[in-house]
Amino acid sequence: MIEIVGREALLRKRKTAEFSDEEVATVRKIITRVKEEGDQALVAFTKQFDGVKLDSLHVEEAELAEAVQAVEPKLMTALRHAAERIRRFHEKQLTASWIMEEADGTILGQRVHPLERVGVYVPGGRAVYPSTVLMNVIPAVVAGVKEVVMVTPPQPDGSIPAATLAAATVAGVNRVVKVGGAQAVAALAYGTASVPKVDKIVGPGNRFVALAKQLVFGEVDIDSVAGPSEIVVIADETADPVFVAADLLSQAEHGEDSSAILITTSADLAANVQTEVVRQCKRLVRGRIAQTALERYGAITVVGDLQEAAELSNQLAPEHLELMVADPWGLLGRIRHAGAVFLGPYSTEPLGDYVAGPNHVLPTAGTARFFSPLGVDHFLKKSSLLCYGKEALLRDGPQAMALAEAEGLGAHAAAIRVRLEREGAKGR
Amino acid sequence: MIEIVGREALLRKRKTAEFSDEEVATVRKIITRVKEEGDQALVAFTKQFDGVKLDSLHVEEAELAEAVQAVEPKLMTALRHAAERIRRFHEKQLTASWIMEEADGTILGQRVHPLERVGVYVPGGRAVYPSTVLMNVIPAVVAGVKEVVMVTPPQPDGSIPAATLAAATVAGVNRVVKVGGAQAVAALAYGTASVPKVDKIVGPGNRFVALAKQLVFGEVDIDSVAGPSEIVVIADETADPVFVAADLLSQAEHGEDSSAILITTSADLAANVQTEVVRQCKRLVRGRIAQTALERYGAITVVGDLQEAAELSNQLAPEHLELMVADPWGLLGRIRHAGAVFLGPYSTEPLGDYVAGPNHVLPTAGTARFFSPLGVDHFLKKSSLLCYGKEALLRDGPQAMALAEAEGLGAHAAAIRVRLEREGAKGR
């Protein structure tokens, strides 16, 4: 089910998230129609894509309250426990405005403000993802965002799963709208009667959602373009094959395009994990999905030492990286690119998906080279402060004029000259 | 030259940075060809768009050294002075990795690492922008980026202006390549023989450059999509009409699509600025450009009080905002959206363009609602750390399993169960 391959074959397993001209054209059409027709287009697309005719896209307060009652207490407890830990971790990410003062009285600084309104996309249809709600909404709330608008596609009966709505309540969502797909992204970007225009759109989705986010980038801000889930496990001979197999399967079950890779220094472990994966997969409800994913994008490779393992992992820049080795902290220094690093045998990736506290929205498809986990700073924006006094003007003005003149921007130089002349006149 | 208009007319002056299907198709073709043909495509497009046939796109060490000699000492001094102030401001933006430890030994944290290689786009052709080089490169160098690749279109004679190359040397660029336009962005995103693939692309450019950056976003990271320059001046009766007019003109001269707006509580100031703009514009080398910009996107509006002025400015979310009022710090609290705020009569915007220290790469076209000035954090990426101990697993494992089961992800639950079972077995 999961092959043992060489380094080259393993690197070929990498996917790219490219879109065809057809996909681009399709999504641009959807966006244009939502811009022009607003809610009418949303209702039409929801009928077309979700197979349900909605009179109102808005989720009422009553529906939210009912959901909290409908969800079993055990799940509500877990949601609140997770929300509390996620909040505590993200509060550590808050940054403050600052200023620097210079001897001549010049003040320079950086203001930090929360975004005013953000949109959170939550996948739906038959799936239910309360954890996605917590992970995308809580950082925005911690940042101080005034209004969080959640969009999620309705189920065939037109409802939203109770667990999703309960999570929205726990996380602090201000408004829930029953709409999904590229049309939901377009609505958040441009605004309709039911969906207010937002400053930023976050949250995972299918290819069309990801492409729509990319196409509205600039009109609004977006988080990184999310791809299929991935895990790389680096393990030595001390690792437990039962744990390693279980963790590979936990990512593989996400979807048939998920990727799960083991890089190990132990040929015995490689063989044992291979066997364990087959044995454990049989017992899984989503075993067939996991099997397909492992056959397509799964792999085990045996390397000479842990340094080689780290280098190979850096080339993959995985979303999730587990270090199941005797000395994980000793290996950490060699890891340059990974969305989240899980150290040691107890730090199984699903703990990070739900309750550990760090965000589970992580860069995929090698983008951990340059993207970061979703965090509070994604919901903050900065602006610069400049307050010059006369002395500083006299010091820096001529330097700025020299640069302005080199760039052929005479009016830039003039704006400084009129002030220097005014001071010179006063001086006389 | 610059109209006095009402609030509504002023808001209609806002531009949007939308691209046509034709523009998208054109730029996608350029990107595809660069991906397929590499340098060959770059040479061909450079001949087509820049009108120069280049044998080598690479700028040699010797050319860089010559440039430093060729530039007049006064300009070199200004470049070094500016670079030093820009470096000092941006060093304040550096952030450190951190961890939080819990009572049971759990360690959670956030690592902060510089990007490894970035590309900086510097506009060229006939224009010369050494300040763009400093402002885009220095934050990357301060962040610790190992390799900064600068791309800029060659002049008709195939050379790059000495001032641009001198600035590259002062700022710490590692490699300069003679290529511009969408093809340069494509080369940085996918890599060619002359242009190494980068992790992030920053720097301003024309519509095609901006669109290309948007289209490669995801393959690499990009800074915000830059539009034409803008300034809003909020002034009361204490403001000097000569200063206000000079500052409006300094932005208007950037290009015919630049925007310069005065919001004032004083009808007298409005009239005096109108007159001053005409008087000063006559003396400007780029007066005709400034005139066209002011006629198309310039405006003066008189409001009832400063609170109204601030609200109107917040709706515009300008790139640059000057507060030329008796108490600028008293007004600051009402300003929610602006790329950079300049306080008081001496803080003319061109000081910020060149020497003040804060970055002059700022969000345009209303994107100050959600984008930030270019800064060190644009060249840093984060990743999460999770290290669970046995106690923490026993505490959080069941909660995570409850959420996994609610999401129908049995393998996620199983990855935790195998560990709880192993501990249970040990317990017996």
How would you describe this protein?
With 428 residues, chain A is of the alpha/beta class. Chain A has three domains: 7-15 and 227-356, Nitrogenase molybdenum iron protein domain (Rossmann fold, 3-Layer(aba) Sandwich); 21-222, Rossmann fold (3-Layer(aba) Sandwich), CATH 3.40.50; 388-425, no CATH class. The first copy, chain A, contains 17 helices and 13 strands. A five-stranded parallel β-sheet of chain A has the order 5-4-3-6-7, with helices on both faces. In chain A, strands 10-9-8-11-12 form a five-stranded parallel β-sheet, with helices on both faces. A three-stranded antiparallel β-sheet of chain A has the order 1-2-13, with no helix packed on it. In chain A, helix 7 links the parallel strand 4 (147-152) and strand 5 (175-178). In chain A, 59% of the residues are buried. The interface between A and B is large, with 130 and 130 residues. Strand 12 of chain A pairs parallel with strand 13 (380-387) of chain B, so a sheet runs across the interface.
